[in-house]
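Q: Predict the bound structure with zinc ion.
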Amino acid sequence: MSQTEPTLIRIFDTTLRDGEQSPGATMSSYEKLEVGRALSRLGVDIIEAGFPCASPDDWKAVKTLAEQIGREPMPGRPQVTPPTICGLARAAVKDIELCATAVKPALFPRIHTFLATSPIHREHKLRMSRAQVLERIAAMVAFAREKCEDIEFSCEDAARTEPDFLVEAVAAAIAAGASTINIPDTVGFTTPDEYGAIIGNLVRNVPGIEKIILSVHCHNDLGLATANTLAGLRAGARQAEVTINGIGERAGNTSLEEVVMAMKVRPDLYGMTSQVDTTQLIRTSRFVSQTTGMVVQPNKAIVGSNAFAHEAGIHQDGVLKHAATYEIMRPEMVGLAQSNLILGKHSGRHAFQVRLEELGHPLVGEALDKAFARFKELADRKKTVNNADILTVLTSDVSDDTAYFTLDGLQVACGSMGMPTATVRLIGPDQQVHVRASVGTGPVDAAFKAIDEITGLTARLLEYVVMGVTEGIDAVGNVTVRIEGPIDNPRMNAQTEVLGRLFHGHGADTDIIVASAKAYLSALNRLLHARDGARAPAAAV
Ligand code: KIV
Ligand code: ZN
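A: Predicted complex:
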């Protein structure tokens, strides 16, 4: 057992930036704000809220988080200062200027700028020599430092950079004023021993390294992101860059819950801690999953639905006799099996509002009215409404600015005796009611076809997942769809910016056909939003 005080590791959450770069996981600025609130409640130190130069909507998201989350103490923890709000910027004047305006309202703003340092990126992507890269780092970090006190610099593809050049690049960024230096394994190529050695080499050889925070940022292409991150922390890094559920580019980023729980469960080995409230992990994971449409695999460590389930008789017997026989952490530590008092149709608005606050989603005014109406509707159909149902009500009722079409009614006829038929009624962007009926191979297919006819879109359905939120035959059904930009449609083909792009949608209802229609519609709404240019194509990173 370590006798000394544990070392505090800063948790830098990039769910809203690198996580959002997962194909199809795009969030609107409203959704980003809601996820930002959940992250703040979780207790992360830094929220990377987006890439302001990527689109006007991303700039707005970063600014809104800076204004609304970056100025308030963490919900439920008045003694904890607000999280730092960070925006990403390439090492270019325009990016940095735009980023600075977006993060400015926060009490603790940060600009995170980056430039690739590896030979493969220098030669083929940047076409810059070592000297030019060093010069650009020094100039852009110094420029950013004029706009903001807190500057993070990342050596993109650091893990494949020559060790001597990495030392020079890090030294240049420190000399120019960076206070955090991040060492990304951008392509998920390294192994724990190698990555720990890279960090150790910097700790030993960079002049001035003791004045700054070294940060680790790993991708999961070989399934080693968490192991690499922990190896980097043991070698001297003091900030971990992570995402909820490990979402992110390609195979994803390091998962926040895995790193935080590894430090908590093995203090003997790591001697490290974080200020994350681990009892918020499950609900944050579920909220992010529903908001991004990225379904969590049942056997995912910490937050998967099977992570604390014991099936084998011997295991069940052991856990009943003493939990520690087969459990290395208690479910309560991650927020499972917390007070889940049921609400029902007689519960009042105040009880509902208090529960929302406890769940980390305080609502007032019109937003509360809408959510309460939706809760009442649900409680009429389902005798008991628990926390999971309430969170579903919230995420499915996100009244964001991407809603072009809303579902106003749906009726299906199906079974083994005839042709499945769906009649769909939508309210369009013109506030007019549109009704179409269609047949299909099943009720979902028929409903989607009717929606296609009204919206004039034909998207390719890539993924369709239905899950019950809770146990029981009356459970709310959660549907997630992923679609690819429109195909074979003359009205859309000119809009090349959405062709081939992925969009997700989420819907929840006790009727899974209704949930499916809502999910499909929400994905189409995102597609329309992108087509109309509110989200310009993201700048290449
Ligand atoms: O993986 C990476 O290199 C990044 C940088 C932009 C920090 O995400
Ligand atoms: Zn990354």
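A: The first strand starts at residue 7 and ends at 8.
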